Amino acid sequence: MAGLLVAATIATPARAQGTGAQIDESAVSTVVYVDQSNPAASDSNPGTQIQPLRTISAALVIAQNNIASGTKLEIGPGIYRESIDLNGFSTSDPAPLIIEAIDPGTAIISGADVWNGGWQPQSGGTYTHPWPYSWGAAPSPSRWPQLQPIVTRREMVIINGTPLEQVMSLPLPQAGTFYIADGSTITIWPPSGTDLASATIEVATRAGLLRTPTGISNLVLRGLTFEYDSTAVNGVGNGAVKLSGGSNILVDSCVFRYNNWLGISVSGNPARNVTIRNSLADHNGENGVALSMIKNLLYDNNQTSNNNWRGAAGGFVGFDADGIKVTRIHAATFSNSVSAYNQTGGVWFDTDNADILIQGYQLCGNLTNGMFVEASQGPVSVENSLIIDNGSNGFQMANSTGVSVINNTTYNNARAAVFIGGSDSPRNVVNFENGQTYALYSQYFTHTGNDLVGTSSQAAVLSSSLSSSWMLFVQSLNSDYNVWFNPYNSLSFSSAFGSQNLGGWQSSSAQDSHSTWANPNDSLPAYCGVPDPPPGPIQTPTPTPSATPTPGPTPTPTAIPAPTSTARPTPTSTPTPTSTATPTPTPIVAAPTGPATVTPASANFGSRAVGSTSALRTILVMNRYGNSAPLVIGQMAVEGSGGFAIVPSMTTCTIGRALRPTAQCLIAVTFTPAATGAQRGSLTIVDNAINSPQSVMLVGTGY
Description:
Layout: H1 2-9, E1 30-34, H2 56-65, E2 71-75, E3 78-80, E4 84-85, E5 97-101, E6 107-110, E7 112-114, E8 120-121, E9 127-130, E10 157-159, E11 162-163, E12 165-166, E13 177-181, E14 185-189, E15 201-204, E16 210-211, E17 219-222, E18 224-227, E19 239-252, E20 255-257, E21 262-277, E22 280-282, E23 289-300, E24 303-305, H3 309-313, E25 324-335, E26 338-340, E27 347-350, E28 354-359, E29 362-364, E30 371-374, E31 380-383, E32 386-388, E33 395-398, E34 401-406, E35 409-411, E36 416-421, E37 427-430, E38 437-440, E39 443-448, E40 451-453, E41 460-464, H4 470-475, E42 478-480, E43 483-485, E44 493-495, E45 498-500, H5 502-509, E46 516-517, E47 596-599, E48 602-608, E49 617-623, E50 631-639, E51 644-646, E52 658-659, E53 664-671, E54 677-687, E55 694-702
Parallel strand pairs: 1-2, 2-5, 3-6, 4-16, 5-17, 6-18, 12-13, 16-19, 17-19, 18-20, 19-21, 20-22, 21-23, 22-24, 23-25, 24-26, 25-27, 25-28, 26-29, 27-30, 28-31, 29-32, 30-33, 31-34, 32-35, 33-36, 34-39, 35-40, 36-41, 39-42, 40-43, 41-44, 43-46, 48-55
Antiparallel strand pairs: 7-15, 8-9, 9-14, 10-11, 10-15, 13-14, 37-38, 44-45, 47-49, 49-53, 50-52, 50-54, 51-53, 54-55
């Protein structure tokens, strides 16, 4: 019973507030420019804006010689086919190292080389080329399940930006595939219509695009893209970018895409004060993001999508794989982020997670679970989030305590809206901060204010596999004020009590006395996640049947009518923007929709030298779930004279484009102060939502 007493005492700490990194970015003495697009670029240059360096590696030599005073590396547009090695930077240096793209998204660190020329045509439209590498299959990590051979490979080939699918034998089955004979030959079949003579053929050859020493501090990565890293499967968190932090790590507006294994991992012993924001991890071979042993984390406005193509190709869709894998994290906030269309689960909190707040999250279209909380002492709170269209359970919990699921919408998940599983025996978990051991059952679960809808006869609204520990769960459960519904399965509560309707569940559990069985019209989403359905994977997934249950027939749910939105009042006035950075406004002619969500309400750009431009901040615009009509933006503009401006090339919101319900877009804004002192402005958005116009306060200081 000691484990039960510990669980009871740890279920009630204060609400988590992960504040993340606190770095004084002005505390640098040297700015070094790298710009391979400049004809004058050379690694023998001093690294000034007029005489930039050609490689990032050369800039790091200058930065290391200036290690005590702090250095900012400004990276110009281009593809940098090199790895960034930060192992020469002391773990105790107090001055920051900032590596940022001059124009976010245009500086690409690539693990691939161009292999144009030397291809010999063969029969059937295929080509061969000598292959000098004998990498073979990587071993399955210790204590992992035995992996299929395709999962353990590391080769990638990209033609004109389109990755090919790797196969394990000849002949090649179709266009868009390739085969490796180790130490001998590579055979490719280019995509249909490819002119190989003029095509750009890239082959991944580098593993580890950025590595840090253990304990590195005051590091900023901003606006960089990392792609085509060839790291193979491993059990230690290696991938394209591996940050082994000490304190104060900031990853801002970065992209991690089409890497063979992990996109980015951040870990420490522990790491403290970490922020990841405005970033994208897309089409990575296993996890998009892996986080481990961090104290004080802020994870905000990020997207992990289409990940685990390498794992899914061999049926590896669980165990370690997820869109984002979170282990041993204490004091963290996960907010306003998306995990969608991963060929695995969306988000997995696995082992020793405590003081976690998850809010405004969208978990959509993932192959297995939307969210999984396992072996965590809590508290973990999931609030105001959307969990829909996932191939297994919407929300799953196992051997965890102090978990709260509040005011969320869980809709159209293949198995159960909420699933309580794990072991009937306690799981022993050790707190990495103080060494305390917890014996964890599934207990002290709070579930209030949620809308939960199943849309097939096979789907449950609540399900559990617990048997002997079932009453421990129920006796500590707090579930009420929920709206439950499945028009095809009234016996949607499946547990040790049997298959029950809501009345039976209320009677046997003594829970949900104020809950209802009704159609929650106001919150049924039509769509969530990325604005448009993503492209297909670069591998053909063959998931295990147990991980992706096949739902029964799902007829059109006539019992769930589309929600009706409130008429939009005509605005009494329309702000006149002073910015000229946006296109001419388009009249709003679309049908009115409900309210739009615009976050954050204010954006602080900090202090900038007069005439210098800040990194961009992104404003999220979302057509809220529950709305039934598209959101159409008629105008977006910056007002005021504070030096704030919209960056069209990095803005995904478009005048006149219709955003479907729960779809979202981003407005990118920068700050270039023209004078010293505090500067203020506002971003105004006019649209067909009932709360139009929306306004975001912009603040910054010039010095």
